[in-house]
Amino acid sequence: MTALADETIGVVATRRVPAANVEAFETALRELKQVAAKQPGMLACDVLRGAVRDGEREYFVVYRFADEASLRAWDESPDRRTLVARVNALTIGGRRHELTGLEAWFDLPPGQLPPSRHRMALVTWVGIWPLVSLALWLVAPFLVALPFLLRTGVLTALVVLTMTYLVMPRLAKLAEPWLRPVG
After folding, report:
1. Which of 18, 45, 110, 115 sees the fewest Cβ atoms within 10 Å?
2. What is the DSSP string of 78-117?
3. Does residue 29 contact residue 61 with C-beta atoms inside 8 Å?
4. Radius of gyration of the chain, Cα coordinates, nearest whole angstrom
5. What does the pLDDT look like over 75-95, one tens digit per residue?
6. Cα–Cα distance between 48 and 51 in angstroms, integer?
7. Entry pTM
């Protein structure tokens, strides 16, 4: 599988930490973030700290990788396994949720439901339609000499890269109020 075929993948991990372990957990988490930041394909890692309730603090660790292969390499690395074992020893339970494709484009606060699929599809179409139109108008004439599959491969790669890195991050931010679930 080539890099163009892979999709950005995000992971949200939640951990509950007893108040007595918070300092040690924070130290282990900082070390984990430092090691993760050096991994090929790592795009971002953020930590959201919840309120202390019933003698525990909930943490949300959100990280993104450029593609699933990079995430899997990180998941299987001995460094990660050692550090995660240290982190897990300081926590009470936790969950892990992976977000791929369109879901990973939309940042959600903890506990918020994802936008409806029809709204995500509409926002995605609003981004793709002008890109495909521009690519067909401006780029396609220069690719006429190429075989059909290569020509469509170049055009779709251009659209996917532009959507992923330029259009969708801005479009998702702009459409964020409309994408929030009603209820």
Report:
1. 110
2. HHHHHHHHHHHTT-EEEEEEEEEGGGGGS---TTPPPPPH
3. yes
4. 20
5. 999 999 998 899 889 998 788
6. 10
7. 0.53
